[in-house]
Design a protein that fits this description.
By secondary structure, the protein is of the alpha+beta class. It has one domain. It is built from four helices and 13 strands. A six-stranded antiparallel β-sheet has the order 7-6-5-2-1-9. The longest helix has 18 residues. The relative contact order is 0.20.
């Protein structure tokens, strides 16, 4: 009887867990070679974000950018809150938007979010590091998509590379590690890094 009860409880937990997650896909760049060259020249990045799940219908969402200094959270800036207007709410079982960002010549991180028919305001953040270039990376690695919890997850990280003893550097090693996004700065001794985070409610 005990084993039957355990199996029943486990069966009940499966749909409950599924109700609290969505599938995340992130695509980078553009196909047009000429446009890619312009983007590289101007330090512009384009990421297309797609979320899928039956539990997304009629939900609101919040996107923030968190800044970390030497591994510690310095502050969180609101980029977009869909609850400000009913038209922004998720109407279907999917949501897609584009993240356009740029490292400016004034060493600022500029970011704007483009949705279907509306967009966020442009936001600017001062960058402190000049020894190494910043790079915007996702957390999917070789996977096409991953499951994320609706109550909060990281989409992208603006990072500096990890520096090895021989002087070589690696960005992918940081973004594709098993370290929690919030702990990347401390683990890899980054003086400054940022996380683009999202919550669906």
């Amino acid at each position: 009887m005990k084993y039957m009860l355990y199996a029943f409880c486990l069966w009940l937990s499966i749909p409950l867990n599924a109700q609290n997650t969505a599938t995340l896909k992130v695509d980078y760049g553009v196909e047009d070679p000429s446009l890619r060259q312009i983007m590289d020249f101007e330090n512009i990045s384009v990421h297309r974000v797609e979320l899928n799940g039956d539990n997304l219908v009629d939900k609101n969402y919040v996107l923030t950018l968190e800044e970390y200094t030497k591994g510690r959270l310095k502050g969180s800036t609101l980029l977009f809150d869909s609850s400000e207007a009913n038209a922004f709410k998720i109407k279907r079982n999917s949501l897609s938007f584009t993240v356009i960002s740029k490292i400016t010549e004034r060493n600022e991180f500029k970011i704007e979010l483009y949705f279907n028919g509306f967009r966020s305001k442009k936001s600017y953040f001062d960058l402190k590091i000049t020894d190494y270039a910043y790079a915007l990376k996702d957390f999917l690695g070789a996977q096409q998509e991953i499951d994320v919890p609706l109550d909060g997850f990281s989409i992208l990280a603006l990072i500096t590379p990890t520096v090895h003893a021989d002087g070589s550097t690696s960005y992918c090693e940081v973004a594709q590690s098993n370290v929690a996004p919030e702990a990347l700065g401390e683990e890899y001794q980054m003086p400054q890094n940022f996380l683009l985070k999202m919550k669906i409610e």
